[in-house]
Write a structure and sequence with these properties.
The protein is α+β, with helices and mostly antiparallel strands and 391 residues long. It has a domain at 2-202 and 383-388: Ribosomal Protein S5, domain 2, CATH 3.30.230.10. The chain is 42% helix and 21% strand. It is built from eleven helices and 13 strands. The strands form three sheets. It has a six-stranded mixed sheet, sandwiched between helices. Strands 10-11-9-12 form a four-stranded antiparallel sheet. Strand 10 (333-339) and strand 11 form a beta hairpin. Helix 2 (94-105) packs across helix 3 and helix 3 (130-146) crosses helix 4 (152-167). The N and C termini lie close together (9 Å). The protein binds alpha-D-galactopyranose (GLA). The site of alpha-D-galactopyranose has 11 residues, from helix 5.
Length: 391
């Protein structure tokens, strides 16, 4: 593969010629089921053909040297493989170091380090989970080299733990799960409460998934994200006054929520909880519609999801709203919504293949006029989860 050939030249120049192993780890996009993974809800993501490539050579000592071709200005980053702590000097490599540390704490100790060259095709800051992609990649590299015999779901959980505890982002399980467990041409219906899942073929019948990146400069996603989680946890604690055995917001039906919502004092927290309950139901309805080939209904539910994320969960912002509203007006656009954490990042749209050019033109013009800079477009392919690439 051409990408690996180019990477090998960089590898040899940075670290000296050596025999290398090849890996690929995808990014992810979520079709529907947003901001419910940490509330025991259902999500419907898929892994992307855009992702992170790695060339890896084991070393004989305990040191690792990592280099990203996308972050050339950061140079080669070095660390020892045991007792790792978050270090701002590691920069992007904290996702690698964090996974090494989390596996070590779980009893899976690396006994040597690695030289690694990384090349990512995911646009930075687009909300397509480049961090989860790196974490699961690291877990798979360690698992392959040290025969830990971890199954993918265990690696997914450890990768999420690395993000929560080492990096400090209180994310749910969706991103790492989609990255690790992705399957070509399928989306995954995942129950984040039980981790039960099934694959659903994304048969889009003359349509494609189009990702549109707002290109919004990086915003303070982490603090707003953690705040939404706290509001929902507080709402749950109040609902438990009326239903003591309630374990998660998404365990409620809309009808149960209507009866219980009086227990939530703060109107904002009431709205947050309402989004969670409705978005969970919407996701199940959407998957059912897709499986009956009712793309029109699926598209309508995508729109409803965006509106709820805007009005009830308040995680969209002018950039994402502008993209979604423009998309809804394009003939041949079946559905469009923000995807991922929000605040910036990307939308996902289902667009008829013969309307994609017009879709891009219309969104680029309208968005640039209002926001002052252009968005970028990616027609997404759906890939398998993180794996070693055999020669
Ligand atoms: C981010 C988090 C996920 C999920 C989404 C919102 O991508 O990492 O766990 O909560 O936001 O659905």
């Amino acid at each position: 593969m051409k990408i690996f050939e180019d990477m090998k030249k960089t590898f040899d120049a940075k670290f000296g010629a050596a025999e290398t192993q090849k890996y690929f780890s995808p990014g992810r996009v979520n079709c529907i089921g947003e901001h419910v993974d940490y509330l025991g809800g259902h999500v419907f993501p898929c892994a992307l053909t855009l992702g992170t490539y790695a060339l890896v050579a084991p070393r004989t000592d305990n040191k690792s040297r990592v280099y990203s071709m996308n972050m050339a200005d950061k140079g080669v980053i070095e660390f020892e493989m045991s007792g790792l702590k978050y270090n701002s000097a590691y920069d992007w490599a904290n996702y690698v170091a964090g996974t090494v540390a989390t596996l070590e704490q779980a009893g899976y100790k690396a006994t040597n380090g690695f030289d690694i060259v990384i090349y990512g095709t995911l646009p930075a800051g687009a909300g397509l989970s480049s961090s989860a992609s790196l974490e699961v990649l690291t877990a798979v590299i360690l698992n392959e080299n040290f025969n830990f015999n971890l199954d993918m779901v265990e690696m997914v959980k450890l990768s999420q733990k690395a993000e929560n505890e080492f990096v400090g982002v209180n994310c749910g399980i969706m991103d790492q799960f989609a990255v690790g467990m992705g399957k070509k041409d399928c989306a995954i219906l995942l129950d984040c409460n039980t981790l039960e899942y099934r694959y659903s073929p994304l048969k889009l019948d003359g349509c494609s998934l189009v990702i549109t990146n707002t290109n919004k400069p990086h915003s303070l996603v982490t603090s707003a994200y953690n705040e939404r989680r706290q509001q929902c946890e507080h709402a749950l604690a109040q609902l438990q006054q009326g239903k003591p055995d309630l374990k998660a917001l998404c365990a409620l039906t809309k009808e149960e929520f209507a009866e219980l919502k009086k227990y939530i004092n703060d109107p904002i927290e009431q709205l947050r909880a309402q989004h969670a309950v409705e978005e969970n139901q919407r996701t199940l309805e959407a998957v059912e519609a897709l499986e009956k080939n009712d793309l029109k209904k699926f598209g309508q539910l995508m729109k409803d999801s965006h509106v709820s994320l805007c009005e009830k969960y308040d995680v969209t912002g002018v950039e994402l709203d502008t993209l979604a509203e423009l998309a809804w007006r394009v003939d041949g656009c079946i559905g469009s919504r923000m995807t991922g954490a929000g605040f910036g990042g990307s939308t996902i749209s289902i667009v008829q293949d013969d309307a994609i050019e017009e879709f891009k033109r219309y969104l680029e013009n309208g968005y640039t006029k209002k926001i002052g800079y252009a968005p970028s477009f990616y027609v997404a392919g759906i890939a398998d989860g993180t794996h070693r690439v055999k020669d």
